[in-house]
Amino acid sequence: MRAAVLHETGQDKLEVLDDMEAMGFGPGKVRIRVRATGLCHSDVSAMNGVLPQPAPFVPGHEGAGEIIDVGDGVTGLARGDRVLICWLPACGACPACKRGQTQLCLAGFLNAGTPNFRRAGGDVFGFAGTGTFTEEVVVDAGCAVPIPDEVPFDIAALIGCGVTTGLGAAINTAEVTAGSSVAVIGCGGVGISAIQGARLRGAAQIVAVDPVASRREAALRFGATEAVAPDALADAKQRITAGEGFDYVFEVVGKSATARTAYEMTRRGGTLCVVGAGAMDDHLQLNMFELFFDEKRILPSMYGGGDVLRSYERTIALWRAGRIDLENMITHRVRLGEINEALEQMRTGTALRTCIEI
Predict the structure, then answer these.
(1) Which of 65, 124, 204, 310 lies 20 to 30 Å from 84 when distance is taken between CA atoms?
(2) Segment 15-48, tens digit of pLDDT
(3) What pLDDT is stored for residue 107 in this prediction?
(4) In this structure, what are the phi and psi dihedrals at residue 316, rounded to the nearest 5 degrees?
(5) Are strands 266-274 and 246-251 parallel, antiparallel or unpaired?
(6) How many CA atoms lie within 13 A of 107 on its CB side?
(7) pTM, rounded to two decimals
């Protein structure tokens, strides 16, 4: 079986090996033949150590495919079912799940410490307990979410992470109001999804902010009313809000510097929504006076800030109705053996989303 492996944290390239074996199949598990997977920035963050992940590991957590085997005790799933892979399944029993905050369930994170693969050289982990840069993967049954037949695997893969995260940030977490002003800092796949979510919620002005010209151009096609480079954001704030600041600002980069900028671009009493996944040693500095005096809401958004299964259903319904565009978010396609090309496309900002077809 083929899979792309990062041998040591900090390496910038993956090695595609053909001697891998998916391990762990048994009661409560399913084996999935991966058909498509997206490259998410979180994969790169795990590779460079920003996000904690034991190595060696197979990156990838935004995938879809078909079930080829079902373990004992699994109900509601069968061989041949088309599924997307949920990297953060809800256990249904922990305090977070009982409160209805299933996106905060820690059960899925525990899977990240258990090897998903093995080869002659030893065990290999799967990123976020999954690892979708592979031909096959074994996961808990709760990670396999059935999808309708008319949803292509590449679209389903996007829904598995980036789209759910961005849409949910605007709809679930920030609850963008009609007629409001919005700025989105960082316009990759998640940022574009946040823009689409703000448009769905009826925002009057949506300013897309990104240093890459092609991403700014794309943002306009997905619903942004204006797109600017980072050094032009202050001018946009002045023109659009008379200097007061935006009602909602989404930080989709995962850096303290951009989060600080986002805070400054948010009006008093407005909402800063932190969507980007950053490093544990990257600290956002705010003084106690501004926190009190400006009364800006700072809302982190984990995986879209809502029940992910309901979010998947909502996203599919919106896509079916033509209310959101997912097809055109996939700007590049590669095969598994070309995975390092996909990494370069992400690092240079030339891709919104690259689909790895397996």
Answers:
(1) 124
(2) 999 999 999 999 999 999 999 999 999 999 999 9
(3) 81
(4) -65, -40
(5) parallel
(6) 19
(7) 0.95
Residues 118-154 pLDDT 10s: 999 899 999 999 999 999 999 999 999 999 999 999 9
| C-alpha–C-alpha distance, residues 277 and 49, integer Å | 12
Neighbours of 123 (CB within 10 A): 14
Between CA 222 and CA 307 the distance in angstroms is 25
93 CB-near residues (< 8 Å, 6+ apart): none
Q: How far apart are CA 160 and CA 153, in angstroms?
A: 10
Helix (H, G, I), strand (E, B) or coil at 347: helix
Distance between CA atoms of residues 16 and 22, nearest Å: 15
Per-residue exposure over 314-349, b if at least 16 CB sit within 10 Å of its own CB, e if not: bbbebbeeeebebeebbbbebebeebeebbebbeee
In the three-class reduction of DSSP (H, G, I as helix; E, B as strand; rest coil), residue 200 is classed as helix
